Amino acid sequence: MSDQFEPRLIGFLCRWCSYNGADLAGTSRMKYPPNLVPIKTNCSGRVDPTHIFKAFAEGADGVLIAGCHPGDCHYINGNYRTAGRFPLMKKMLEQLGLEPGRIRLEWVSAAEGDKFARVVTEFTEEVRALGPLGWNTRTPEEQAHAGQASSDRVEEAVPA
Amino acid sequence: MTDKFKFAMYWAGSCGGCEIAVLETKDKILELDANYDVVFWPVAADFKYKDVRAYDDGFIDVCLFNGCIRNSENEEIAHLLRQKSKVLVAFGACATMGGIPGLINETTAAELKELVYTKNPSIDNPEGIYPQEKLEVPEGELELPHLYDTVRTLDQTVAVDYYVPGCPPEAHQIAAVLDVVTAALKGEGELPPKGAVVGVAPKTCCDECKRVKEEKKISGFRRMWEFFPDPEKCLLEQGVVCMGPATRAGCGARCTNVGMPCRGCYGPPEGVVDQGAKMLSTLASIVDAPTPEEIAEITATLPDPVGTFYRFGLASSLLRRAKV
């Protein structure tokens, strides 16, 4: 085991193109880093900003959204919606202090196993260079509020 | 002291508008007086913290707690009132979601102090004098509460029984909440399940808005001072950023019905985790442009998406605060 930082990446992959692209990369025995956890979604357009925010809030170091190339969407225009939403979402995340390199939108078709492997490799190295994000870790001030999970609702007995 | 029920109301990090909203219930306030003894209400009655500390645990029947947890005093009193209250209600946008003060979560207390005490163009402070938390004077030590970096909601601090959102909560909703609690205390009704959001409707603000809604397609954003909006038509369809689609109903859409866009003070509707994320989705999907690049150009004209979409809810959003 090296001491190298291993980023935790979440990938939302559309089931019609990018997830199959990832499958192809696997069946073709292409090598790429194991840092990305793939999540199959019906369409990249289904990836709600809530999902991305939650991924970061729960400790992801980077999030990839991958969908069909423009014009190839199984649902006609889902990927256009993703692409339309992405810049505004990125702007919000940057306003909240996120480095732009931690979020990425890519078009990967079912035939592009090599592209999938390349994207994951590049993304892993980019995020590795940025270091841990740790949105889920507490600030020193929050640690001072002893015993309280910072993002959890407090559950304690309520006097009757 | 009589055998009436005990009522308390407290303001933590807030503006005082919630207290005014309680007075806005008009003659209902007499019912409050008929059913309750006020045992703590800094804005209205002269009780001290030491009086509250002297009460038995659970002495207060209902406590409306407004304001966010901004500093160490807010936090201490939140814990104290939780201990002394049977029913603790997070009252208003600040207590439920962090409210406007929650926007400080975009930065830190140190940066805030620097801006207010030195950087602000109208400030002349060459000696760099900052407020101190402790000061020795001949009579003893004076102390100010410690200002936190991160604003928290009441339920991120202590357990909360009910939520009443709104900035401020609408008078008829406050009256309804007091009616429910009073009936339950008298044994004439049941309390809602713990954790319930009371005094709201299940749908979104748009549902209560009287404006005519047609197809939502916009080619750009406009602000209220730039034009005279059509008084009948949906504001969002006219290019005004109106938070209605991502906001809980219950206020009667008062803002939009008088020509101002919804700012989202009632928080996300049922089933929605993150109000800002939903509003971002909404806006990006109604921008009518042929290519994603053009959509991006149009959405880039929004100067402050975080401050707009999380105007009241940054502290309770998924990300809660900016990374520093």
Would you kindly provide a brief summary of this structure?
The complex is a heterodimer of chains A (160) and B (324). With 160 residues, chain A is of the alpha/beta class. Chain A contains 5 helices and 4 strands, in the order E-H-E-H-E-H-E-H-H.
Q: So what's the oligomer here? A: heterodimer
Gyration radius of chain A, rounded: 18 Å
CATH first level of the largest domain in chain B: which class? Alpha Beta
Spatial extent as radius of gyration of chain B: 22 Å
Largest sheet of chain B: 6 strands, parallel
Q: What is the C-level CATH assignment of chain A?
A: Alpha Beta
CATH superfamily of the largest domain in chain B: NADH:ubiquinone oxidoreductase-like, 20kDa subunit
The helix/strand class of chain A is alpha/beta
Q: How large is the count of helical segments of chain A?
A: 5
H/E topology pattern of chain B: EHHEHEEHEHHEEEEHEEHEHHHH
Could you tell me the mean pLDDT of chain B? 93
Sheet having the most strands of chain A: 4 strands, parallel
The N- to C-terminal Cα distance of chain A equals 53 Å
Task: Give the strand order of the largest sheet of chain B, numbering strands 1, 2, ... along the chain.
Answer: 2-1-3-5-9-10
Helix content of chain B: 25-40%
Number of domains in the coordinates of chain A? Answer: 1
**Under CATH, the topology of the largest domain in chain B is which?**
Rossmann fold
Tell me how many strands of chain A there are. 4
